[in-house]
Design goal:
This protein has 12 helices and 2 strands. By secondary structure, the chain is mainly α. The protein is globular, with a radius of gyration of 19 Å. It starts with a helix and ends with a helix.
Length: 322
């Protein structure tokens, strides 16, 4: 555990060191994000804030993982790293379309869901066939082998988690803080289960996330963008699947569930009622802003809920009979 914690601290320092020049470079390249009209009017002041902040997370995470994790003897850790690389690259392309004064649009949600589904199928097959994880761990009951049924479950976990994290990326510090909490929770679970290399990876991502939040704290100097959100969501899902404790992921990631479903419910209700809205604005964090909560209040309170969810999730994971 000492190695995992120290690796996380080193990653934080590296992210902090790399963050300032990355932000300066993005500003120099005029990588300012345009703000959608669908967001609250108060968000228009964020226009021009550099996006691509995900680089502050996954560049130091790659460096420290290559040094601190014995990936040669634990090659399965290459899967969450690959997920970060592939989804981060897709997020980069999408973020390019959100820049100010750019006519080309980002990737459509239909394309992103299709892309994530195809990628999730590949990842699920690797998890089942090569990493040999196929169980469901049920608190107070036990572990049960799903056999081939594990693959569609794993696909669903990866797609829903990735999109849930991406939807949560809308306020300063929200996605960064909530994924930070989730990775710490799974780092603890992995350590207790004896998966030290998974625990080390989880704390490395947590440390990188801490470094990013330093620059993303309100008022943000940089925005995560899909460059970071898709990478964090997909790698979190894979870590949960590698620990076998994916059933508690909706509890640990309760904010991602609430954010994602609020978007789905809003769209569905709007179509069913021909124009009526269930929430004042979706996703959920914007609804609370419309109710009069300050951005910092929404973020802090969502962090608190995420922390409680993480504690409950770890407790449920520990309740699985060995």
């Amino acid at each position: 555990m000492i190695h995992a914690l120290v690796s996380g601290c080193i990653t934080f320092v590296l992210a902090l060191a790399l963050g300032a020049p990355i932000v300066r470079y993005l500003r120099a390249q005029k990588a300012g994000k345009s703000i959608s009209e669908d967001q609250p009017q108060s968000h228009q002041v964020k226009a021009g804030t550099p996006t691509f902040g995900g680089f502050i997370i996954w560049v130091p995470a790659f460096i420290v993982t290559a040094i601190a994790v014995d990936w040669w003897n634990h090659q399965s850790i290459l899967l969450p790293l690959a997920m970060i690389g592939v989804t981060g690259a897709a997020g980069f392309v999408d973020d390019m379309g959100t820049l100010q004064h750019r006519t080309q649009k980002g990737l459509s949600w239909r394309f992103k869901i299709g892309f994530l589904t195809a990628l999730a199928i590949v990842a699920a097959i690797i998890l089942y066939q090569y990493i040999e994880v196929s169980s469901i761990n049920v608190p107070w009951s036990g572990s049960y082998d799903l056999r081939w049924g594990y693959i569609p479950v794993a696909v669903l976990v990866i797609v829903l988690t990735t999109t849930g994290v991406a939807v949560s990326d809308g306020l300063d510090g929200l996605a960064g803080g909530t994924t930070l909490i989730a990775f710490i929770a799974y780092g603890i679970v992995a350590f207790i289960q004896g998966q030290l290399y998974v625990a080390t990876f989880a704390f490395i991502i947590a440390g990188a996330n801490l470094g990013f939040v330093w620059y993303n704290a309100h008022p943000a100097r940089v925005i995560m963008g899909d460059t970071g959100a898709l990478a964090l969501g997909s790698s979190l899902a894979v870590v949960a699947l590698m620990t076998g404790q994916w059933l508690v992921l909706p509890v640990i990631g309760i904010i991602f569930v609430a954010e994602g479903f609020s978007d789905v419910l809003q769209v569905g209700y709007y179509r069913l009622t021909r124009g009526k809205r269930l929430f004042r604005r979706a996703p959920l964090h914007h609804h609370f802003e419309e109710l009069g909560w300050a951005e910092t209040q929404v973020v802090t309170r969502f962090w608190l809920i995420g922390f409680i969810g993480a504690m409950l999730g770890v407790a449920f994971a520990l309740a699985v009979p060995s």
